[in-house]
Design brief:
Helix content: 25-40%
Bound molecules: cytidine-5'-triphosphate
Number of domains: 2
Shape: globular
CATH topology of the largest domain: Rossmann fold
Oligomer: single chain
CATH architecture of the largest domain: 3-Layer(aba) Sandwich
Number of strands: 21
CATH class of the largest domain: Alpha Beta
Length: about 400
């Protein structure tokens, strides 16, 4: 699937650099050629010799390597690839990229390149969460830089959280997604997924049984057709797919803000099971049994994120798709919901407990469009996702972009 593609792999200075041995091997197995570039710090973690042996190519390390300049200038090197991949993308490299610094070979190549760039960040969780890194990430994604990971888990530094570099196969999938020549290439699509958690106090929350499986499958299918996918997800059971830009949120209001920040998009798919209500004033401290009587939980209505986007004027995505989870009169309720929310399509499903759909691996949906209702046979959620992605591709192809 990567046959004939050339990847310029910039290896940053982090412990995750060791995963690049496997990454190079897997890229070459799939037919890609890899030109490696090591930063000075990267050479503390992996050697040019081992990387060169695996890539079967010369490793570039120095901006002022005159032999290399004679053979191939750094400008040419930066443009000779189909894709530039930065792995691990350290906090320092991301900061340099976001600010256009060019004080070594890696950063100079990144500033000079006119090919797409994908980064696989890896850093300590505090560094990842730092406002400076958040700002740099927002700048980079705004510049069109694509993201693989990071994942959540235990880290080499002993802490736990987001910041672990994506696994080599996840990066390979992300690379394949960016290079895919599918019908959705060049299209930016927003997908919401998972439940939301609405806090009652610091330890309790209101939630629902959504696993996030259908939303993740849709994001994966769209990415597989070449779309650039922004995946805004609540706390789901299933991990987000590789190759999409992941924005993690907890509450409906955070999801709304993330959705607004992710626009403009060519299409927006609202697969999240957003909590309709939140506790009007969540307590800052844990509610105690002993404070007398039962706590009164006054509720406030959450913003309807789908309706907000479907009814926005300028900047509305060309195709807005909602979901309807119903337990009876599925078509009638979903048809009314489509009109009420102002979206183009509704994918309705029967989530009554007997169907086993909520939290299960299968789905039976009815697609409601302006033309009417179309029942799809019961199938796996990834098959529903692929069928929907094909329909979205066909619909967008019919629109002038
Ligand atoms: N949705 C949303 N924001 C909300 C509630 C729902 O974006 N605050 C979106 C969901 O992602 C889904 C669609 O709206 O695409 C339908 O959600 P659903 O909960 O089924 O519909 P409701 O409007 O809550 O209607 P009801 O609860 O009356 O069935």
């Amino acid at each position: 699937m990567l046959a004939g593609k050339r990847i310029l792999l910039i290896i940053g200075g982090g412990i995750a650099a060791f995963k690049c041995h496997d990454l190079i091997r897997r890229l070459r197995e799939r037919g890609a050629a890899v030109t490696p570039v090591l930063t000075r710090a990267a050479q503390e973690f992996v050697t040019p010799l081992s990387i060169s042996a695996l890539a079967g190519e010369k490793v570039f390390t120095d901006l002022f390597d005159l032999t290399a300049e004679a053979e191939m200038g750094h400008i040419e090197l930066s443009r000779s690839a189909d894709l530039v991949v930065v792995a691990p993308a350290t906090a320092d490299l991301m900061a340099k990229m976001a600010n256009g610094l060019a004080d070594d070979l890696a950063s100079t190549l990144l500033l000079a390149t006119d090919t797409p760039v994908l980064i696989a960040p890896a850093m300590n969780v505090r560094m990842w969460d730092h406002p400076a890194t958040r700002r740099n990430l927002a700048t980079l994604t705004g510049d069109g830089v694509r993201l693989a990971g990071p994942n959540e888990g235990p880290m080499a530094c002993g802490e736990f959280g987001p910041g672990r570099m994506a696994e080599p196969m996840e990066i390979v999938e992300a690379i394949a997604g960016v290079l895919a020549d599918g019908p959705l290439k060049g299209r930016r699509i927003l997908v919401t997924s998972g439940p939301t958690h609405e806090p009652i106090d610091p330890v309790r929350y209101i939630a629902n049984r959504s696993s996030g499986a259908q939303g993740a499958a849709i994001a994966s299918a769209l990415s597989g057709l070449g779309a650039e996918v922004v995946f805004v997800t609540g706390p789901a059971d299933v991990p987000p797919p590789a190759g999409v830009e992941v924005v993690r949120v907890e509450t409906a209001r955070q999801m709304q803000a993330a959705v607004e920040a992710a626009l403009p998009a060519d299409a927006a798919i609202f697969a999240a099971a957003v909590a309709d209500w939140r506790v009007a004033s969540a307590s800052d401290s844990k509610l105690k049994k002993t404070t007398g009587g039962l706590p009164e939980l006054a509720l406030a209505e959450n913003p309807d994120i789908l309706a907000g986007v479907a009814r926005m004027g300028a900047g509305r995505p060309g195709l807005v798709v909602g979901f309807a989870a119903e337990t009876d009169d599925v078509v009638a309720h979903a048809t009314a919901k489509r009109a009420r929310k102002g979206c183009d399509w509704i994918l309705a499903n029967d989530v009554s407990p007997a169907t086993g759909i909520m939290g299960g691996s299968e789905n039976a949906v009815v697609l409601i469009t302006g033309e009417g209702a179309e029942s799809w046979p019961r199938m796996r959620k990834d098959q529903v996702a692929r069928a929907l992605a094909d329909r979205i591709a066909a619909a967008l192809a019919g629109q002038t972009s």
